[in-house]
Amino acid sequence: MLSELLKNKSLFNQLYIIDKEIAEQYRQMPCSYCGGPLYFANYFRKPRGEPDGVDEKCFIRFSLCCGKEGCRHRIMPPSCRFIGQKVYWYIVILVIISDLQNEKINIFKMSKLFNISRNTIARWVNFFQDIFPSSSQWQIIRGRVSALITNTGLPSGLVNCYVNFKSTVEDSLISCLKFLSQGSDFHQKIRAG
Ligand SMILES: [Zn+2]
């Protein structure tokens, strides 16, 4: 099962490094509103579902703020660790729902196995069935993957596609999350303060 990977704390570190690189690329761009310089305004999040011993730095949500007086726009660089305001790590949600679809395990068993409430898992299923396929995030990147990946087969169809092309399952998930992050967050510009 893919969810076996959730015991691997180095995976969380690798995802952190990717987010850090992406955030640094965004920091070097000018503010899209006023052209001013961007500065880091990071904060800590407390996602759930990681193994013991994951480094504290992995919990940092990179965030940028325009330094020009009177603008101060905040920009969230894309992330492959966090998905919107969801409480669990993106990778946790992705592999649990993929296992649910691939292995034909029911929500009740999955809930017991991971000590996550059935309601929470059911909400994730609904998210991938009803919300994600029509989200701008998916619309932006949809054209870059095979038409064989159907909206009804998300997310396992996409994850399995990466698993078939990469040498290790770890690399597959990292690439898949990196791909998914490309459609995320960039358009969410929140005025700070
Ligand atoms: Zn600005």
Notes on the structure:
This protein has 193 residues and is of the alpha+beta class. 44% of the residues lie in helices and 8% in strands. The protein has seven helices and six strands. The protein has helices at 9-27, 90-102, 107-114, 118-131, 136-142, 156-165, 169-181; strands at 38-40, 43-44, 60-61, 64-66, 73-75, 189-191. Helix 1 (9-27) packs parallel to helix 7 (169-181), helix 2 crosses helix 6 (156-165) and helix 6 (156-165) crosses helix 7 (169-181). It is globular. The termini are far apart. The structure holds zinc ion.
Strand residue percentage:
5-15%
Low-confidence stretches: 185-193
Question: In the residues, how many domains can be counted?
Answer: 1
Q: In total, how many beta strands?
A: 6
List the helices and strands in order: HEEEEEHHHHHHE
N-to-C span: 44 Å
Which term fits the overall shape? globular
Order of strands across the biggest sheet?
Answer: 1-4-5-6
| DSSP helix fraction | 40-55%
Quick check: average pLDDT? 91
Largest sheet: number of strands, sense, barrel closure: 4 strands, antiparallel
- The computed structural class is alpha+beta
What is the C-alpha radius of gyration, as a whole number of Å? 17 Å
Compute the number of helices: 7
Question: What is bound: which ligands?
Answer: zinc ion
Q: What's the SSE blueprint?
A:
Blueprint: H1 9-27, E1 38-40, E2 43-44, E3 60-61, E4 64-66, E5 73-75, H2 90-102, H3 107-114, H4 118-131, H5 136-142, H6 156-165, H7 169-181, E6 189-191
Antiparallel strand pairs: 1-4, 2-3, 4-5, 5-6
Bound molecules: zinc ion.
Residues 31, 33-34, 36, 66, 68, 71, 73 line the site of zinc ion.
